[in-house]
Amino acid sequence: MLKIPLPRSRKYILGACIAAFSLYTFINSEPAFGIPLLLLAVAVATTYSYIVLDFANGCKGEFTSFFGLIPLGGWTRLPSANHLFLKRFSEVVQEEISDSGVYQTSRHQRYLIMLSVSDSRDALLILEVLDLEEAREIARKISLAGALELKDYTH
User: Which of 88, 89, 59, 87 is nearest to 74 (CA)?
Assistant: First the structure.
């Protein structure tokens, strides 16, 4: 069984802002608002998501953990796989900078870690990663856990 934490979002900043407001309410003698806000701040700051791959039982789980203790999520069946592959995916996105009608073109690039499904031309997306070295390390761990051949198409 392999547990892969997903990249953390900026939720800890939101948690810090709620905590600051909670302290403000404590200073102004409003504990009825401060205590629930402090609990909400801790919940927001300690929430994280992860994926669990259980190759022995053929399952993939996607979970979100609240307070770092309470996992919520579910399991799906993994199809039988030939190999694991890592692929570069990039797209050109045109974004409007302001209401002036000026557009900016940027290239968004990410790396996809996918399982090649047996007897099919389909693949199962496991994870999208922004950093190449991190993607290679995660793909290596998955290939070792599942005893799958890793094919790297990022060169």
Answer: 59
